[in-house]
Amino acid sequence: MQLQINQALAANSIHYPTTAAKDIVLLHGLFGNLSNWKAVQQELSPNYQVWTPQLPLFNHFLGGGLNKLVDFLEDYLQEHQIKNPILIGNSLGGHVALLYTLKYPEKVERLVLTGSSGLYENSFGGTFPRVKDYQYIKQKIEDVFDRKEVVDEEMVSYVFDIVQQKSKALSVIMLARDAQKQNLKELLHFIKIPVLLIWGLQDIVTPPEVAEEFYQYLPNATLHYIDRCGHAPMMEQPELFNGYVSNFLAS
């Protein structure tokens, strides 16, 4: 099993090296991939060590849901000798970052959450009633974004391919349901480190009231909303997103 994990670490990761001391780890969502973070990587890589692992959402050794993704993240950090990183997570990636911080509070310097699950969400991955309908899948993806122009054929084909494969579709459903079950409301007060919340005002997956709850229950949180923005601010409004992150890291 450890060999499989190490192989996954080596094959599915992007690292932007620099001489800076601080490490940043970017965690994508349930249907996300490494390209979601392109603008963030370009902005932060001159001043930080930026790491972008591909979460093993579909690997056969993943049984155990989100907790196994937390284990994967710990293995990844140890493998690359990353200590006290800043974790930046979108959607399910934010949930993983929260669970990791709760499990290893002394190992995380700061958190940035954007459209994070962990309280409640209207999950696209909970069911696939029209799995063979390409236009239906495209419409469901477009619904996640306020700025529809970020949705291209490559993105749609990527998601469509996932839901065509039974094992991958089952993994997505399992993780989506586990995310809905793992409500962290009663645990958030244990996270004492600084947390930046960046939320799209038009997010229909984790609506703005979810951000308000995170802000209420996290003891050391800062919240910024972005207009004309849905569930993925780092893709839809990268300049504003990067500005908030850069100010937060410099503070």
TrEMBL record:
Entry-linked Pfam families: Abhydrolase_1
Coiled-coil residue spans: none
Domain AB hydrolase-1: 24-237
InterPro entries with a match to the protein in the record: AB_hydrolase_1, AB_hydrolase_fold
Name of this chain's protein: Pimeloyl-ACP methyl ester carboxylesterase
Organism: Pedobacter xixiisoli
Taxonomy of the source species: Bacteria, Pseudomonadati, Bacteroidota, Sphingobacteriia, Sphingobacteriales
